[in-house]
Amino acid sequence: MTALLEINLDAVVWNWRALAAMHTGATAGVIKANAYGLGAAQVGRKLLAAGCKHFFLAHVAEAVALRPVLPGVMLAVLNGLLPEEAGDCYAQDLVPVLGSLHEIGWWRAEAVRRGKILPAILQVDTGMARLGLSAADLAALREDPTLLEGLRLEYILTHLSSSDIPESPVNQRQAQKFIEVMKQFPGVKTSFANSSGMFLGAEFGSDLARPGAGLYGLNPTPGRANPTRDVVRLTAPILEIHEVEAGGAVGYGGDWVAKRPSRIATVGVGYADGYLRSLSNAATAHFDDTIVPLVGRVSMDLTTFDVTGLRASPGDALCLIGPGHGPDALAREAGTNGYEILTSLGRRYRRRYIGA
Ligand SMILES: *Cc1c(COP(=O)(O)O)cnc(C)c1O
Description:
This protein is of the alpha/beta class.
């Protein structure tokens, strides 16, 4: 009996449309890391049918794998490219997001090799020091415009480091820097906000927004009501129920000791399924409408919950992620963020797509 992961693709489309409606430019779909663990082919196909024309992946190999599913639309590669990947980029009509003079050089070499003008997105670093052209790189491009010969700039792009903290002054600083950089590339379209950035105000608008998290039901406005619809539901059948006397221990290390006679329900989900070990003695699940606490340590393939006083029996389902206790709530219990919860979702779950 394996756990069931339900992924609501209609909700993904609803979220994409809701975000797109907030924005005057186009709205892409970020489907890197297998669409945050939910299935890039399924999500991509659904967004394509809904009218999405721009997709972002992280790796060239991810984009190559998705090209057959997503023909005729922009597949951009956020992590840029290495020299040995330029051939695949060209063959699959990918758009690398270039963030260094090295990457620009490698992509130009491919353009020369093919005798073609190749599409590119330039990423500029406006304060994250992770990817993107530095001020010195931008100066080099100003001094020698031939460095971009052979490339057709589709967008200039930058990424916000603190968009989930609307009051952070970093956001405005990055917006100011990006406006400065735009002057160096007159007529080139821009791409700025991720999901949370789309809620920061008009100066974070651009020709192409890049939401990921908000498509998958993570709250792009932490601390405020979640404007997105739930996408994920994870339920696990109870395998066994154990009656434990007061003073009895549960699980590895006997970390949890019953204070009263207790009924312990075991489900077949563990850290090997991305149900993180840091949830030990910290998470909650739902049995019908009742909150049940996780007791003891999460083990590789099993986890135990206290269902004392409830009419739970083997075969009944516990809801580990679902309405009222979404991936963001589970993330708080684990001490991480909803992104890590989703991208960790295991491969052993039975997956059911709603709206496929
Ligand atoms: C992952 C990513 C996004 C999407 O961010 P969300 O917070 O998931 O909306 C957008 N842009 C870049 C550069 C990214 O790496």
